[in-house]
Design goal:
It is built from 15 helices and twelve strands. The protein has 368 residues and is of the alpha/beta class. It binds 6-O-phosphono-alpha-D-glucopyranose (G6P).
């Protein structure tokens, strides 16, 4: 058992620490640094089909859906194609409007989640293009979509998903790049994006090296019953995923919120017992998020910031900070998510929770 965990106490930590390697596996052979694009043969779309795509619909559940939200931002940002994320369970019962010029991306670590599978069947039935972003080779979703991109993250044992999430995000960035290069994105910009995607393993290594510091910060957040996670733009889905991770393994109630929405209700809950964890690294919306943090402080909420290394001015606003390396916002989602995975892990460990097998949860939900 200890050998299977590679010397770590839990599968979750093993999987968190594997991420530089799993991202290398996910991206291997899929990035063309010269042409500034990605090679995703599994998508199996003709040049005509690629250009004709008018909309992307991304479906998934839980962590996989949160990854999809980051994909939505990247696809619209890079390629200028409208993209939408829908909870797989909603999609299937809504009689969705999809057709042959829509590409449905079904995201699933296991490839067996009942709601995601049902969404795939619905989309296939309606004649849309459907591709799977799946980790488990040969799983039902991988088979039924017939086209797709395997994550190559290796077996994920911990119920709380970590390495599958960062691989999903990496694949979505590569899809966004590919769609963009067939449309409005220049080769020079494409080359830049390839370089940034190639840096992801290093960005993760940087965060993993701060593990002890994150463990220290976590000590201050073990005795709360509730937390808010806030972010804007690309960092909003990271807030959602951070909140999901802490709920799953530490049983602290947490909500991921858009920082701007906080004042439309949730701010009423803030006091010294409600910490706010803010994704406040450099990038679009940072100044606005920081002013939301000031509003939280004015209500006595303890504030923890995920900030860019060296950004002292922002760090000074917070009670505690976790740093991530400087990089564009579309890749910063990954080091930020990894930092919050470690934070959740340490909070749960200090609370004496069962890390790999949280109560009431299953690794794969094959019922509706
Ligand atoms: C369960 C797991 C989650 C996972 C979700 C979707 O709820 O506990 O960690 O994100 O299912 O699973 P999938 O295999 O489709 O990604």
């Amino acid at each position: 058992d200890a050998a299977e965990k590679g010397g770590f106490e839990h599968y979750m930590t093993k999987e968190i620490f594997e991420q530089p390697e799993t991202i290398r596996n996910t991206t291997r052979g899929r990035l063309d640094a010269e042409r500034g694009t990605s090679i995703l043969s599994g998508l199996n779309l003709s040049p005509r089909e690629l250009v004709d795509i008018q909309r992307l619909l991304i479906v998934g559940c839980g962590t996989s859906m949160n990854a999809g939200l980051i994909g939505e931002y990247a696809i619209e940002d890079f390629a200028g194609i409208p993209a939408e994320v829908e909870q797989a369970a909603e999609f299937r019962y809504r009689n969705p409007i999809v057709g042959s010029r829509d590409l449905v991306l079904a995201i699933s670590q296991s490839g067996e989640t009942a709601d995601t599978l049902a969404a795939v069947r619905e989309a296939v039935e309606k004649g849309s293009l459907v591709a799977g972003l799946v980790n488990v080779v040969g799983s039902t979703i991988a088979r039924e979509t017939g086209r797709g991109i395997y994550l190559h993250a290796g077996p994920e044992i911990s119920v709380a998903s970590t390495k599958a999430f960062t691989s999903q995000v990496s694949v979505l960035l590569m899809i966004a790049l590919k769609l963009a290069r067939g449309r409005r994105l220049s080769q020079a910009r494409g080359i830049e994006i390839v370089q940034e995607i190639k840096r992801i393993p290093e960005l993760i290594e940087w965060v993993l090296e701060t593990n002890d510091k994150i463990a220290e910060v976590a000590q201050h957040y073990t005795n709360y019953q509730n937390m808010f996670y806030i972010g804007r733009g690309y960092m909003y889905p990271v807030a959602m995923e951070g909140a999901l991770k802490i709920k799953e393994i530490s049983y602290i109630h947490a909500e991921g919120y858009n920082a701007a929405e906080l004042k439309h209700g949730p701010i009423a809950l803030l006091d010294e017992n409600m910490p706010v964890i803010a994704l406040a690294n450099k990038g679009a919306g940072q100044d606005k998020t920081l002013s939301n943090v000031e509003e939280c402080k004015a209500r006595s909420a303890p504030v923890l910031g995920v900030v860019t290394a060296g950004d002292k001015e922002s760090a000074d606003i917070f009670d505690h900070v976790i740093e991530i390396p400087d990089c564009p916002q579309y890749t910063s989602v990954i080091p930020a998510a990894v930092a919050l995975q470690l934070f959740s892990y340490h909070v749960a460990r200090l609370r004496g929770c069962s890390i790999d097998q949280p109560r009431n949860l299953a690794k794969s939900v094959t019922v509706e």
